[in-house]
Write a structure and sequence with these properties.
The structure is a single chain. By secondary structure, this protein is an alpha+beta fold. It has 2 domains: 75 residues, 2-Layer Sandwich (Alpha-Beta Plaits), CATH 3.30.70; 226 residues, no CATH class. 19% of the residues lie in helices and 36% in strands. It is built from 7 helices and 24 strands. The chain has a 5-stranded mixed β-sheet, covered by helices on one side. It has a 4-stranded antiparallel β-sheet with strand order 19-22-5-23. Strands 9-10-13-11 form a 4-stranded antiparallel β-sheet. It is globular. The relative contact order is 0.18.
Length: 309
């Protein structure tokens, strides 16, 4: 895996911008125009800081606006890493599904499904669980193609059309853990849909966190992703330990062991959002999904390393 630090800056002097751009590109850096926005982005190999002095000098002369920031990492994986990774994280930014909220001004999980909070930790909220099928407008499902997702305050839901679930079962010989979606509204859903509901949690001792701080609930012991300690990025927060992973019979989908999010309620007790563990996908299923070229679906390898002595 190669990591590139992305720096966003606003140029004031076009000649200086042209000179810097030419020099940086000679070194293999990437410079991208944010047009129509007035910013540019510079991507440099992580650990190479030779560009920083040049940007600081241009800023001191007034050729670059003050306040430029280096706050994102782009991670690029080799074909071999993608082909061999045993686990992938997932982000889906496809079709947004509209949700009926009634008179509420804030969208909550309660508008999708019932949530059982009786088992939730009184301190951190971990343990709240959806208690029934998700309710979605058939009109929204009909425009979502064959894969959809919803994120409400960090509470994630992933949905798959029955036809795609059947294709994956035929291709991989295993079924996904699914719960039927209840289609509502005036339209009729063109096909059935289900929510992907992983139950298996990757053991915490098989995972090493990277660029994040962990915190443990003093009441229930739930391990949480507490805070990031470096630039943001879409993957790479975790590394799997090969020795521990080799002892696990991984299912097609699973849950990251780190809890995220909080239990937020409306005044009447209905659930707005609740803590959850993010879904991971086993490598063969992730690669199968990648081959289907689903709009907005991004899967990122979680690399393995040997346990430190």
């Amino acid at each position: 895996m190669e990591e590139y630090l992305r720096t966003t800056f606003f140029p004031r002097n076009r000649r200086t911008l042209q000179r810097l751009t030419e020099e940086w590109r000679k070194r293999g850096y990437r410079v991208e125009d944010g047009h129509p926005a007035p910013f540019f982005q510079l991507s440099t190999p992580l650990g190479d800081d030779s560009w920083r002095r040049e940007l600081e000098e241009a800023t001191s002369k007034g050729d670059i606006e003050e306040g430029w920031r280096s706050d994102w990492l782009d991670q690029e994986f080799s074909e071999e890493e993608i082909a061999s990774a045993e686990v992938f994280s997932i982000i889906h930014v496809g079709v947004d599904l509209n949700i009926l909220t009634g008179r509420d001004r804030v969208t909550g999980v309660c508008h999708l499904t019932d949530v059982d909070t009786s088992t939730a930790c009184a301190r951190c909220g971990a343990g709240a669980r959806p208690g029934g099928p998700v309710r979605l407008l058939a009109s929204q499902l009909n425009r979502a193609r064959r894969f959809a997702s919803i994120d409400i305050g960090g509470s994630e839901f992933y949905f798959i059309a029955d036809s795609l679930a059947e294709d994956l079962t035929e291709a991989r010989g295993e079924t996904l853990p699914l719960r039927c979606v209840r289609a509502i509204g005036k339209q009729v859903a063109r096909e059935g849909w289900s929510q992907i509901v992983p139950e298996f949690v990757v053991p915490i001792d098989a995972v090493r966190e990277k660029r994040i701080e962990r915190a443990e609930c003093a009441e229930c012991g739930a391990v949480r992703r507490h805070a990031d300690t470096g630039p943001g990025h879409s993957g790479g927060h975790y590394v799997l330990l090969q020795e521990k992973l080799s002892l696990i019979d991984l299912p097609p989908v699973m849950l990251n062991p780190f809890w995220e999010g909080n239990l937020n309620l409306f005044p009447d007790g209905r659930v707005i959002s609740y803590p959850n563990r993010r879904m991971w996908i086993r490598g063969d299923f992730a690669r199968e999904l990648m081959s289907r070229k689903i709009d907005g679906l991004h899967v990122t390898p979680i690399l393995c390393e040997r346990e430190r002595q």
